[in-house]
């Protein structure tokens, strides 16, 4: 790895949810099958420990209810426990008051478990879009430090393709919020923004492309953000019954994800969002 890459710290994030947490209409998962969630979390925490890095764990409130010991373990190991909402509901299908109640419920659960203030939020399925961008005002009212819900791309599910691609304080209704927006990393391909370092994109692109994209961002002084779900490191985990297109997006190349993540943790420096912000910006 180049010295320029070493000098930049990238951001490691996980969306902490079960295999059945998704937002596909007319899909009712059989939750009685159980899951390997505990084993996945043990693996992720051990990988972070081995790499000597901190990460941000965007955790559902219902996970806090079902696995309080795991949430406590995340915090005990010095990671950032942030909110992913309560039950993986799409923010753009909630009213502002429903969104407020959802975030409040998750924050209360997580703070009661960890004894520390929740600093950040990521909407399930990147569901802060142009139509509900003003929901960020709710996060500011809660005193959160950052949001990481905006993906500067356009897909059939989410995205704000014209959104800023660097960390910034967003302007909503003509006012700059006292809240950092930490948008998902993108690269330019044929004049369009494309993700490369998380979820489907992380699984889809060959490792050398991801490495080059992170190195390119780091040379420009920018951090790249990795995001993954616990289910993505285990090809044997139960799967949702999805149409072919959605199945491809949700499960393509899961068998290669764990090794690819391990290689990235070895090649680049990573930390949590809150630690990065406290190091780089005056709060």
Structure description:
The structure is a single chain. The protein is an alpha/beta fold and 283 residues long. The protein has a single domain (3-22, 33-280), classed as Glycoside hydrolase/deacetylase (TIM Barrel, Alpha-Beta Barrel), CATH 3.20.20. The chain is 37% helix and 14% strand. Strands 1, 2, 3, 11 and 12 form a five-stranded parallel sheet that branches. Strands 4-5-8 form a three-stranded parallel sheet. It has a two-stranded antiparallel sheet with strand order 6-7. Helix 2 links the parallel strand 1 (9-16) and strand 2 (56-59). The longest helix has 19 residues, at 96-114. It is globular, with a radius of gyration of 18 Å. Residues 1-6 have low confidence and may be disordered.
What is the element layout, followed by pairings?
Layout: H1 3-7, E1 9-16, H2 37-51, E2 56-59, H3 61-66, H4 68-76, E3 80-83, H5 96-114, E4 120-121, H6 136-141, E5 146-147, E6 171-172, E7 175-176, E8 180-181, E9 186-189, E10 192-195, H7 199-204, H8 207-219, E11 225-228, H9 244-251, H10 257-267, E12 269-271, H11 273-280
Parallel strand pairs: 1-2, 1-11, 1-12, 2-3, 4-5, 5-8
Antiparallel strand pairs: 6-7, 9-10
């Amino acid at each position: 790895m180049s010295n320029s890459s070493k000098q930049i710290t990238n951001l490691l994030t996980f969306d902490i949810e079960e295999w059945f947490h998704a937002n596909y209409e007319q899909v009712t998962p059989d939750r009685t099958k159980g899951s390997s969630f505990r084993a996945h979390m043990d693996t992720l925490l051990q990988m972070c420990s081995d790499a000597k890095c901190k990460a941000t764990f965007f955790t559902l409130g219902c996970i806090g209810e079902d696995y309080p010991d795991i949430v406590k373990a995340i915090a005990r190991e010095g990671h950032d426990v942030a909110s992913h909402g309560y039950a993986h509901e799409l923010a753009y299908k909630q009213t502002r008051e429903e969104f407020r109640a959802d975030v409040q419920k998750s924050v209360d659960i997580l703070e009661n478990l960890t004894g520390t203030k929740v600093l950040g939020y990521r909407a399930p399925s990147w569901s802060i879009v142009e139509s509900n961008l003003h929901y960020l005002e709710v996060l500011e009212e809660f005193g959160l430090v950052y949001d990481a819900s905006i993906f500067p791309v356009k897909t059939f599910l989410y995205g704000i393709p014209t959104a800023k691609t660097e960390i910034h304080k967003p302007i909503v209704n003509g006012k700059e919020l006292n809240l950092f927006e930490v948008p998902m990393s993108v690269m330019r391909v044929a004049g369009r923004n494309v993700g490369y370092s998380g979820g489907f994109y992380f699984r889809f692109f060959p490792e050398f492309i991801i490495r080059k994209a992170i190195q390119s961002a780091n040379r420009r002084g920018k951090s790249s953000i990795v995001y993954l779900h616990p289910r993505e490191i285990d090809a044997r985990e139960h799967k949702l019954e999805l149409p072919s297109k959605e199945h491809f997006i949700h499960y393509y190349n899961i068998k290669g994800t764990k090794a690819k993540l391990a290689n990235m943790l070895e090649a680049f420096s990573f930390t949590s969002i809150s630690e990065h912000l406290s190091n780089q910006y005056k709060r």
